[in-house]
Amino acid sequence: MDNLVYFNVQKKTVPHAIDLLCVYLPDSFLMDKAEFISAIAFALTKCDTIPDGIVIYYSKNLKEEIIDAWNDDVQKEILFSRLTNNRKLYTKFFYFVNVTNQGFAINDELSSTNGVFEPSDSDFRDFYKKGIASLAEKNDIVHSAPSGHKFKHPSGRILNLFIQAKEIACNEAELQFIARGLCLIHPQISWSELESVYIDSMGIYSLVKEALTFSNSQAVIENFHSYEGIDKLIPPTELDVAIISASTSGSMASILIDKGFDLSRIITLIDTDSKEKSSLSLVTLGSGNDILKKDNSLYNYETEIELVGEQFTYKAKPPKQITISFKHEPDALKEILNTFAIDGVNGINERLETINKTPLISLRPENLLKCSRFNKWLEDELRWSLSSSVNLILYKDDGASYQLVERVRDIIKDIRDSNEKISILEASELDDDALKNCKGVLIISAFCGDGGDLRQISRDLREFEDRVIPRHFLIGVGIPQSNSAWKKLRLFLIKNATKRDYEFSVWNVLPLGPDIISNSWAALPDYLSKVQVEDRPTHEGLSETDIDNLLDDMDIAITSSFNRLLPKTNDEDLQLTPGFVFFNDKFDDELDKINQSVILMTISSVLQAAREYTEQDLCLSPSNYQSVVLSPENFLRFNDDILQACILRASLPSELDYRSNADLSLLMSEFLFKVFSRHDHPFGFAALEFAAALSTGKLQLRKEHCIELVNKTLSIKPCDQRALAGFMLSIKSRLN
Q1: 271 and 238 within one domain
Q2: pLDDT score of 270 more than 60
Q3: Which end of the chain is more exposed for a tag (fewer CB within 10 A), N or C?
Q4: Are residues 497 and 614 in the same domain?
Q5: Domain presence at residue 73
Q6: Do 60 and 98 form a contact (C-beta atoms < 8 A)?
Q7: How many domains are there within the chain?
Q8: pLDDT exceeds cutoff 80 at 506
Q9: Does residue 660 form part of some domain?
Q10: Confidence of residue 296 (pLDDT cuts 50, 70, 90)
Q11: Average pLDDT score over residue span 375-391
């Protein structure tokens, strides 16, 4: 849905804040009725919860098509089914807003309010402005300088950030949306009457041109080329406007005011904060952006990157190499391993019938419930933090949370020493009756990822309660994708329309990295299916029968490894030896009880901690000026076959892309040849994992290095290599 702009906003009302989904339909949108419904349904999939209302912005060119689509009862029923939960329609109102060069006009014929919320014209303007701000965040227009560097701006200021305003719109729909907002956010400027519009960079020309077209203006666009041309500007007339692409200091606006521009005729598209005394602004980033926070470095040793207009050197430096070390150990890892390492982690991709899902890594509730440290924390948390008003416990139907609920209920009864009844309810059974006599609710989840289920429970509570009821979210172990995702979840759950936050408790949180890591298992069958339909590869010295047998060996290795890592070339499982740094010697005598999933969980959490590490030189995250890769040294430092395999599986493709640097690519290819040539020795037991990563594109070398590696490997008794030779043959075929 590249031709669609959608975003979420929240409007604070009493007793609850209202969640809105806003959708902008550009002029080129809508070929038929079904497409309109599909567009709204697609936007809904990106919402954390079902919204209270939907606001649809459209231009006058779409009016007839929208009426036709909205009046189709069959199509509308499809949409309403997505907005319904427990046979109750959660979305209470729909507003269709016609965006014209005169402002925002509600289409009363299509809109449905139900008296829940009646937004004003300024509300629609505020929503629209928040939508533009969401595009600024989505399109990543704020760039931070790489470690050891600062940006020298044309104004002379030296900062660790640079705003590239021209990237705020990435397609036609976003360009229309922002340009029309430029005309409408500040209605005091009559765009149709303008004579000249002065811009500081050609990067924003298309935005300004679209704004003038929308407002039927004949104004001329003049580019004064930032600071270098500002001195040549002639005094403006009352019908001129100046537009600044981005500002961190407001100095350009001050110069324009000195040139004769009134501050009400100066618009800064992207500003770090509001500068009402110098210009109007379209998007204000605000101090909450981490990149905008003050740099408290004690030493000024940074190299300056000089900016000329909006130009800079992209990825000017060789990729940064990161070597994983003990410094990257997550804070919660030791506690999690102590609790779950022995028989506490389900197998890789083990199906959980209770939730009808197959997660890559999942924990067993039995280990959590018998952990003395967790039980001590649980009792303390309930004694010290739980509101005495709580008389209802909600839980996730996941096969684990109910066991925790029973223990929580017993502890609460012991604490209160009363006969007050505590109701227990599975979350999907929540309705109006369940909350009639509810004074406070405790929501329990034994394990929680990024919190989709908890978000829905929170939304359900808001739907059925007639007043704000105290809530307490209690979670055993959080296993989100990242710390930032967890912080976002916590903020979503604790905020409400009152000045008090809801309570939120969690024993331990261990981020395990992006969900795309699980694609490493899906990628292999996909790769195999492609190989099977392609022409049989050839190699000198190998007969057709030999090649078929080697490809069959590769097939067997892949199809037998959905619930494990690829084996050694002799079909034995990869194994761990004593001395793994993140096990702290604790499990050296029990390694036979450690599942592969435990090691994968450990490596995944360590790599994610590296991605979020605060010290830039040790952080496994790229900037716009320098890519980052895992140093080949990692595979020498973690030289157990299973550790190497887990690093390959848990890493992101960009972290194993060595093509940008010839020396790194050559070094990695030489290491891989040593692994492949010794596949039947401990040094090379992970050969199939390396070959699979190379085959699927997870690990990438320069083409010339890859060709040489494949040919050298196949020159050493390929029939003895079995599945490894099958991988090499398939790679060779695709390289030719």
Answers
A1: yes
A2: yes
A3: C
A4: no
A5: yes
A6: yes
A7: 4
A8: yes
A9: yes
A10: very low
A11: 94
CA distance 251 to 278: 9
Nearest to residue 10, comparing CAs of 155, 116, 126? 126
3-state secondary structure of 143: strand
Q: Give tens-digit pLDDT for 636-694.
A: 999 999 999 999 999 999 999 999 889 999 999 999 999 999 999 999 999 999 999 99
CA 378 to chain centre: 31
Residue with tokens 């309660």: 465
- Is 502 in the same domain as 535? no
Q: How many other CB atoms are there within 10 angstroms of residue 543's CB atom?
A: 11
Dist CA 80 CA 85 (whole Å): 10
Q: Which helix (H) or strand (E) holds 17?
A: strand 17-25
The helix/strand/coil state of 736 is coil
Identify the domain boundary among 455, 478, 509.
509
pLDDT over 50 (residue 237)? yes
In a domain, 713, yes or no: yes
CA distance 313 to 149: 13
pLDDT at 427: 92
CATH of the domain at 482: 3.40.50.2020
Per-residue pLDDT at 398 exceeds 90: no
Which structural domain range is residue 434 located in?
A: 365-509
Q: Is residue 576 helix, strand or coil?
A: coil
**Burial 91-102, CB ≥16 within 10 A → b, else e:** bbbbbbbbbebe
25 with 177: CB under 8 angstroms? no
Token code pair at residue 34? 């079904």
Residue of 244, 325, 266 lying closest to 581 (CA atoms): 325
Angle, in degrees to the nearest 10, between helices 596-611 and 641-650: 50
Residue-wise pLDDT for 694-730, tens only, equals 999 999 999 999 999 999 999 999 889 999 999 999 9
Q: Are the CB atoms for 727 and 689 separated by under 8 Å?
A: no
| Per-residue burial over 13-42, b = 16 or more CB atoms within 10 Å of its CB, e = otherwise | eeebbbbbbbbbbbeebbeebebbbbbbee
Distances (CA, A) of 454 to 327, 459, 545: 32, 9, 56
Q: Provide the edge-to-edge strand list for the sheet that holds 149-152.
A: 158-159, 149-152, 303-306
**679 lies in the same domain as 559:** yes
Is 720 domain-assigned? yes
Alpha carbon distance 704, 700 (integer Å): 11
Distance, CA of 612 to CA of 483 (rounded, Å): 8
CB atoms within 10 A of CB 329: 18
What pLDDT does 315 receive?
Answer: 43
Asked whether 123 and 277 are in contact (CB, 8 A), the reply is: no
Give every CB contact of residue 360 below 8 A, 6+ residues apart in sequence: 348, 349, 517, 518, 521, 600
Q: Are residues 162 and 285 in the same domain?
A: yes
3 state SS for 488-538: HHHHHHHCCCCCCCCEEEEEEECCCCCHHHHHHHHHHHHHHHHHHHCCCCC
Q: d(Cα 523, Cα 530) in Å, to the nearest integer?
A: 11
The whole-number pLDDT of residue 595 equals 95
Residues 550 and 481 occupy one common structural domain:
no
Look up residue 35 and give its two tokens.
């497409």
Q: End of a domain among 474, 509, 544?
A: 509
User: Structure tokens of 712?
Assistant: 């050298």
Are 467 and 523 part of one and the same domain? Answer: no
| pTM of the predicted protein model | 0.83
382 and 302, same structural domain?
Answer: no
